[in-house]
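FORM 7B - TANDEM STRUCTURE REPORT

SECTION 1: FIRST PROTEIN
SEQUENCE AND TOKENS:
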Amino acid sequence: MWVHPQTAQESANPCASAFDLLRLSGTDTTSWPYRRRRTALESVFAARLLSAPWVLCPSTTDPDTVREWLTWASVGMEGVLFKRLDSVYEPAVRGWRKYKVRETAEAIVGAITDPVAAPSGLLLGRFNDDGRLQYTGRTTTLARAASSTVAGLLAPARRGHPWTGWSFSAGWGSRETLNVTLVEPELVVEVGVDVARDASGRWRHPARLHRARPDLSPANVPRGWRRQEEEPHTALTSRGRAACGAGGSRGRPHGRGAWSPRPWRLGGRSQRLRAGDFPSRTRAQS
């Protein structure tokens, strides 16, 4: 399961989402096929009447249910993970496949990496409700043609840039900082992003530049940046939310398997879940 320490401390109702069972009543279940492990996990929840804060991660083999889950991005659902039902648990082996929901968004270029004449990456921002330009993420490395196009649309920063004195992380969870050059926050770009956000509402993964939008002004960019004051329960999730057929191109499943939604995961650490980790009895609270 994944538990983000900050969220667990701040939330008044933390939860633990279970997706797999590796040991049951002293028996090592890692050699069991996932189908059998999932059945055993469901039996543990039923036999012990487990309720909040324990949550059984949803799972399905129905493609129509998966399509419905993929429409839940507005409530923080990143996508789905899937695995073959006949697969055994293999430590340190990535047996789960991922399909992430992506969307198109506009953002303002506030800084770049490398010189203005040949930027290799863009640092992006959006205005908050107070009209302040807040950092919301960065792009992947630009292709040479895209770099050349963007360079011709950038202007060096004037005095009073809103990001003066700021430092920027080289990546989510990294302590390394980027060496950036501030530019005048005038250029709007269209990017492709997944729906994962960090605790401050920034894009957790680098955005992919689609195109520059010199036809738009910064005022046209939605004020989509906000700090998440209280994360939903889905911020505390399992690492492998289900089982399913082996993935094909772009993570599309094929073969027999089960899906599970991939809720908005803020990070944290992975732990093996065993039956002994559950309380002996949990009653539903009215």
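SECTION 2: SECOND PROTEIN
SEQUENCE AND TOKENS:
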Amino acid sequence: MSQCPHEIQLAHLRAELAQEREARRRADASVNRLTEATYFQAQALVRHMEVSPPSLPQPPPPQQTLRRASPPSQPEPSFVYFVQAGDGGPIKIGFSRNPRVRMQELQTGNAVELKYCGEVVGDQGLERILHERFAAIRLHGEWFTATRELVDYIRYMLAADGEMRAER
């Protein structure tokens, strides 16, 4: 007995639904792992734990010829910043070495007035973790819906980062 086209289509849709559910389950498991990592990172900030600096390499032996020593170059600090489009609009989670200048660049190409919410010391890895943490509310690119959870999380990060900077 052959199946009618509707039954075949229904079977295909059920198979697609099962695949989507499995993909969602794997994505949720990945987000849970990242959420746990973010939680522990936040706990470290709250406890003001500081990681001991890596051991520095030994300086090279002095050379016979005298050269003017150049000052050691320090890496430029980097930041993860938060910008909101208008009051209650979407929030951009971005990375920059100079977030204030980046904000001005963003404003130039944006018709909506942007509000600078703040910045935390961080690198592109932290930016990626935050993007993954809030992937469910991503609108486009680095822009996210301004949910209560996201706004509270940003406030928490800014407060923890401010306390860390004040102790230095």
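SECTION 3: OBSERVATIONS ON SECOND PROTEIN
Strands lie at 79-85, 91-96, 114-121, 138-140, 143-144.
Residues 79-167 form one domain.

SECTION 4: SIGNATURE
Preparer initials: ____
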